Amino acid sequence: MTDSISHSYPTLAANPHLLSLLLSIEPTQAKSVAAKQKIYVDSLVDITVQAIHTIWPQPIVSHKPVASLTTFLRHILKYSRTTHSTLQLAIFYLFRARTKIQKNKQDGVASCGRRMFLAALICAHKYLQDKTYKNVAWSKVSGLKVAHVNVAEKTMLQLLDWQLHVKKETYDQWLSMLQTHLV
């Protein structure tokens, strides 16, 4: 997975929106490509945090989380070596499933924004990547039991009506909308 968030150069050519964002930064700022990519990822993480807080305004938890939502997201992204496009698609899945999630918030797994984000990321990863992780690996990265990862993934797939494909026009519109909210 050479296209990881922390070590990704091939992503630039494959993602015109990311490339335009990076080119729009003044060269006088003298930031490296890695620093620009970090800014882009930070912006995507911020959007993800906002999305999760919008869909799940008051988390339903019986205990205080060990880490903040931002720390949790960064951990998952770092150790799963998630690509920009995978993260963008995962965020799209959260928005696509939002209405059903809000109706089913009291239903177990759907009530947890962190688990639903993880499930959206797993679905996006499995849809986009030729070589993908087994749920045992996602379990290790997330700290959840494999059975909980399986249930979260199945719940997300059901919320998405098992439709992981996104039409090119729709995805391009999504990237344009993301672009307006970045940095």
From TrEMBL:
GO annotations of cellular component type: cyclin-dependent protein kinase holoenzyme complex; nucleus
MF (Gene Ontology): cyclin-dependent protein serine/threonine kinase regulator activity; protein kinase binding
Superkingdom of this protein's organism: Eukaryota
Pfam hit, one: Cyclin
PANTHER family tied to this protein: PHO85 CYCLIN-5 (PTHR15615:SF36), PTHR15615
Name of this protein: Cyclin
Organism: Phycomyces blakesleeanus (strain ATCC 8743b / DSM 1359 / FGSC 10004 / NBRC 33097 / NRRL 1555)
